[in-house]
Amino acid sequence: MATSSSYSTAPTHFRRREVLGHAQSKKISGLIGFGSRRISSSRLLLSRPGNFLRDRRIFRVQNVSSESKQKLRDPVTQSDEGSSSDLGSFTPDASSIASSIKYHAEFTPLFSPERFELPKAFYATAQSVRDSLLINWNATYDLFEKMNMKQAYYLSMEFLQGRALLNAVGNLDLMGAYGEALKKLGHDLENVASQEPDAALGNGGLGRLASCFLDSLATLNYPAWGYGLRYKYGLFKQRITKDGQEEVAEDWLEMGNPWEIVRNDVSYPVKFYGKVVTGSDGKRRWIGGEDIKAVAYDVPIPGYRTKTTINLRLWSTKVPSEDFDLHAFNSGEHSKACEAQTNAEKICYILYPGDESVEGKILRLKQQYTLCSASLQDIVARFERRSEGHVKWDEFPEKVAVQMNDTHPTLCIPELMRILIDLKGMSWKEAWNITQRTVAYTNHTVLPEALEKWSYELMEKLLPRHVEIIEMIDEELVSEIVSKCDMSDPDMLVKKLNAMRILENFDLPPAVTDLLPKPEESPADDLKEELDSDEVLPSNEENEDEPKDTRKNEVKLEPPPVPPKMVRMANLCVVGGHAVNGVAEIHSEIVKNDVFNDFYELWPEKFQNKTNGVTPRRWIRFCNPDLSSIITKWIGTEDWVLRTELLAELRKFADNEDLQLEWRTAKRSNKIKVASFIKERTGYSVSADAMFDIQVKRIHEYKRQLLNILGIVYRYKKMKEMSAEERKAKYVPRVCIFGGKAFATYVQAKRIVKFITDVGATINHDPDIGDLLKVIFVPDYNVSVAELLIPASELSQHISTAGMEASGTSNMKFAMNGCILIGTLDGANVEIREEVGDENFFLFGAYAHEIADLRKERAEGKFVPDERFEEIKEFVRSGAFGSYNYDELIGSLEGNEGFGRADYFLVGKDFPSYIECQEKVDEAYRDQKRWTRMSILNTAGSYKFSSDRTIHEYAKDIWDIKPVELP
């Protein structure tokens, strides 16, 4: 860690003259804050020290808002705002960058002035970079506004961005200049960048995909931006203790976020509760209830080597100051006084708050509605402003595309309907036509619990107007189904209606039931009539003379429980949108043939596939510079960063010994970095000469970290049964690395984390095993950790139960970095294997089409577990890994039926295939020439999985938007 506390030879405290030159300092003081504008220090970035006003140009932070803007004249140049198009041709050098950093250290400080240590250096550097982004950011949206082009809006509950500094500097192509500037100031760019906390705005692949998409949208010059929520505490920060996973609040905002700009003039009212009334004009209106404000925070998203810089708008929630109850506070009722503010602010406290309680469910629904309502109000305001007083609502879908990333933003559909009908005065037919043409839906899961359902009662209470609109959409859906179904098969019709309706467990409308034949009375109905009569069943003939208690002989039939009324959000997405896409070829087929088969039969034209992708900038170019240099050298161009199809050129050199040597050297260099990181984070020492075997992703039973760790236990047990010589001959040394968070209330997932750490504690301290096997759980896995681990990976595990992983994106990142995958034929694994070649992918396990029959076999008690699997379960139960009782964890793999049992995710079924496949991995790794060839071919075959390709497909097939590049 650098400890320099001064700017090279400069004093520790800077005066204004040292940054600007003595003569200019007073003049700039007068200009800063001119009128309603703020002077950006971009001028300093564009001039050498002492020459600040030589070019006589001043730049400002222009508000990227939804309000109309008055044209201002520049106080120095007397030119109109937006006339700084010549700035893009200026490339700042290290000296001007150093001046900019020094300026921010003094004039936009977040730290005391005495020292210039790493945290302060980071914030000053980030603010300097942001100045460069602001110029392009403002120019980008000036262009979008003037051209009034169709724009895409990507709504997601998660954006897992990672650190922004190196990504921004790299995209601006200023890595060398910033590195040199910081050296002048006594620091190293990499050490400065390490001070940045990961933005706690997401958790897993859903959020990382959204961030990759924004990078590609900017890089490809598409008019688009993202909408999300500004979570104060994120999901949680994960700590690993002797008890397993512990959760504490994220602190990413405690020192401020240098990338965001609050837009206090961009806020929208959001309402909950209240009631719906009919006005004198016959229109329905939502009144009363709980009111909050959503305020915009904007984050610039730069493209790679392009001026285009798009926007991620995050909403934060609050109430006006007048909602603070001053009287209650002065009366000593302090909690009551702050109640309104607390209720508003907590909406954006936590990503995915626990929803075991009613209060938790309400909070989650509030989050989802806040995202949808604020975003759509903003989108509508932008459309109206761009229309310049000539609003044509039928053109709304020609100017706006709204993409719902999973089911969380489903309320976009009834919210857009509410705005159009209640606020803009449209008819139902007009509003429904506009909504369906505007909105599209990406499905990310086949898991039933993730295809969200909300309690009708809760939603009716919290969002009464939206429930009315959803009921009307459901009514229209029922009418369409009836009109297109064969009425000669009423049972099939009822089955379809029950599966497809948005409202679950609701009676069919009378208009439908009148069309169905009346059911004949059954014997059960006759029995019920008899039981309901006054007759008493005869009693036992014994003791006839005794008084008879007839109540003993009454047969009481308990009524079946009434299933709760629910709102199916995924069904609403399919009905309300014009396009539905899966995120891998196999997943899209499951969506069409299983999850939404009835809808697919009704509207086949709606369904598409859009295989996920990841940005090659962050996931090769920036996180793996050694490998990037090798790729560029052998391909002969760096254009692969934008045209990943060029990666396929590596296939020609896969057997070249010089390339293979360079390839292995780069991999080992990355492994050494990870070994150092592991020592720092966990205290364990690992060998960089061992195979690095990595599984990093959200902890979930379907992702089967349990299968992985049980395979490691099997490996360990067999090692212990051998002599030292036999062990060395049989097994390749491995470092098995896990990372990922288990949701705070997901008990079984947390048991898996505990089990992994217990196994690691035993194996890592076993002197018989030494460096032949290590098990590491990396705490608080995030994007920055991934950027370290993925370049160092040699084997990566993507071993979900077939048919349950929609796509995956980490599998793509690993393949891009020359890592070989072991996995099932699931999600994007299918397409990766096709591209890299069957011989360069370690395949095991059951196929997706077999899963249903295998579960049925289990339920019928016909499954016979492999004796090796039974052996390992007993070994775990023996206490080999400590005193913790793992009966519940192992018990989930046993039995034939029941919640949490019967091995629903088929760990036992796939275990034999898995350990046999691992033996093939060892065999391949011993031949380093073969392994390196496989590694090269994995990178070469990953060309298809760039998010640039995915975004082009969305733009063409779903959004109908065109790229536009700044001049």
Automatic annotation (TrEMBL):
Tree of life domain: Eukaryota
Protein name in the entry: Uncharacterized protein
